[in-house]
Amino acid sequence: MSQASALMWFRRDLRSSDNAAFSQALRSGATVYCVFVFDHSILASLPADDKRLVFIHDAISELQATLREAGGELIIRRGDPQHEIPALAASLGCDTVYANRDYEPYARQRDAGIADALAANGSRLQLYKDTVIFEQDQLLTGQGKPYTVFTPYMKRWRLAMHPALAGDVSTALQGALAAPAQASVLPSLTELGFATASLAGLRVQTGRSGALALLDDFTRRMPHYKTLRDFPASKGVSYLSAHLRFGTLSVREAVRAALQQPSEGAECWLNELIWREFYQQLLWHFPEVCTQSFKPEYRDLVFSGDEQWFQAWCEGRTGYPLVDAAMRQLNYSGYMHNRLRMVAASFLVKDLLIDWRRGADYFAAKLLDFDLAANNGGWQWAASTGCDAQPYFRIFNPVTQSQKFDSKGQFIRRYVPELAALDDKAIHAPWLAKTLPAGFRLGHDYPQPIVDHGEQRTAALALFARG
Q1: CATH code (residue 154)
Q2: Residue 444's Cα: distance from chain center in Å?
Q3: Residues 388 and 417 in one domain
Q4: Domain count, the chain
Q5: What is the number of other CB atoms lying within 10 angstroms of the CB of residue 170?
Q6: Could you tell me the CATH number of the domain that includes residue 458?
């Protein structure tokens, strides 16, 4: 009697260790084939220079090498997963396809279609929890409803948390993997249509090896996370967001690292991981937040901002140095410091009076670590339209934020070099400076502010008060 075969479908979990679905497949007793599908419907929506493809490509290459060392292979397919996965499972004689659950609306629709197609062929799709500690309906209020405020959710999460939930689920690969008759060729970025995508010049560590190196580095810095995380010129954050997004690091590894340290920094970072799960469960229960405000009273707001203002914001030429530095960092690197995400988002909605969805879409196109749940949650928080949002009357002042979190202008000077010669006071608001460097002309070398913050704050308050 021949041994049963199973198919492991890697998606946003590009690692072979501490992977819930892969572990279940390896423990099933079946011979395990592995596959990754370049989804044409997703790739078609991305710009040709999308940095995420470099990150993903590097991670897949490393994963493929790891599987080959263990006697297996990572089969590469390009096309529609709703066709590719059932067809591959049928051709290999796999009665079960293993994958980790994805909570985004597109993924849920895709997986439902694949489950139906597999069932029609007498096989099945088995999905597992892997990207979060708690999912779906695992944490509900006393009334059996989803949490819509972070603090009660955080307290419930911590109460329900047990170290075993963050335990390592790694399973030995040797002897369990099936090796196809021939090696699978990983297409180049050029062949995928992303010839201009590059991480050249950026200090981005990719793949599983990069994730572990960054985690090791951050573990040593974690005690200082709480005090340094808001200062973009300091090395205060983890730089692990892209690795969590694409699964080169498991959330269990991240939580274990936080739980193993008795420090304020570790507690603070754990809270950030809980915020991530809060937004994931929110997207699961309320998928409509992708396209509309969570709060019904703000769904019909008429944002009157000028199109030229939006373009200036995108390009980092608003005349507000910290906002411009943040946007230029994003455009250059695909990364933006978390404090600056809040500042830039608040400025777009509350100062420029532009619909938060336009900003969310721009971040979605640019961020290396783009995650629909976190991006949507962060934008609705800043826009005061979300479930657990900043109250609409709290509006970030881009100048005082700059003075507080980049007091010496180090971050601004890096990304807005035309302001490098300004002193540490003038650099935050050049239009208020009593003196400027010789030869420097405001409005020529650097823009005048495109709006007056005080006036726009008043307009934003009136807009939201009517909502």
Answers
A1: 1.25.40.80
A2: 36
A3: yes
A4: 3
A5: 15
A6: 1.10.579.10
How many Å apart are CA 404 and CA 230, to the nearest integer?
Answer: 9
Same domain, 242 and 341: no
Any residues with CB less than 8 A from the CB of 89 and at least 6 apart, and which? 7, 97, 118, 121, 123
Taking Cα atoms as reference points, which of 245, 298, 308 lies closest to residue 11? 245
Domain ranges, residue 462? 296-466
Q: How far apart are CA 378 and CA 275, in angstroms?
A: 10
Q: Kindly report, residue by residue over 165-201, the tens digit of the pLDDT.
A: 999 999 999 889 998 778 899 999 999 999 888 887 7
Residues 234 and 307 in one domain: no
Within 10 A of 250 (CB to CB), how many other CB atoms are there? 25
Q: Are residues 279 and 309 in the same domain?
A: no
Q: In terms of Cα–Cα distance, which of 451, 437, 420 is closest to 319?
A: 451
The 10s digit of each residue's pLDDT in 386-434 is 988 788 889 999 999 999 999 999 999 999 999 999 999 999 999 999 9
Q: Cα(271)–Cα(258) distance, rounded to whole angstroms? A: 10
Number of helices (H) and strands (E) in the chain: give both, helices first.
19, 5
Name the one residue in this structure whose structure tokens are 């000077």: 413
**Dihedral angle at the C-alpha atoms of 369, 251, 63, 108, nearest 10 degrees?**
-70
Mean pLDDT to the nearest integer, 244-272? 97
Give me the torsion for CA of 142, 145, 150, 154, rounded to 10°. Answer: 50
Are both 221 and 314 inside the same structural domain? no
Task: Give the containing element (helix H, strand E) for 402.
Answer: helix 398-405
CA distance linking residue 84 with residue 42, whole number of Å? 15
Q: For the chain, how many residues are written?
A: 467
Map residue 6 onto helix, strand or coil.
strand
User: Please, are residues 33 and 74 in contact by the beta-carbon 8 Å criterion?
Assistant: no
Q: Which residues, 6 or more positions from 291, have their beta carbon under 8 angstroms from its beta carbon? A: 357
Q: Which class for 234: exposed (0-12), middle (13-18), buried (19 or more C-beta within 10 A)?
A: middle
Tokens of 206: 């990719």
Conformational region of residue 86, where left means phi above 0, alpha means psi within -120 to 50, and beta covers everything else? alpha
**Residue 356 and residue 345 in contact, taking contact as beta carbons nearer than 8 Å:** yes
- For the full predicted model, state whether its pTM sits above 0.90: yes
Same domain, 331 and 442: yes
Cβ proximity of 338 and 305 under 8 Å: no
CA neighbours within 13 Å on the CB side: how many for 50? 22
Cβ neighbourhood burial of 216 (10 Å; 0-12, 13-18, 19+)? exposed
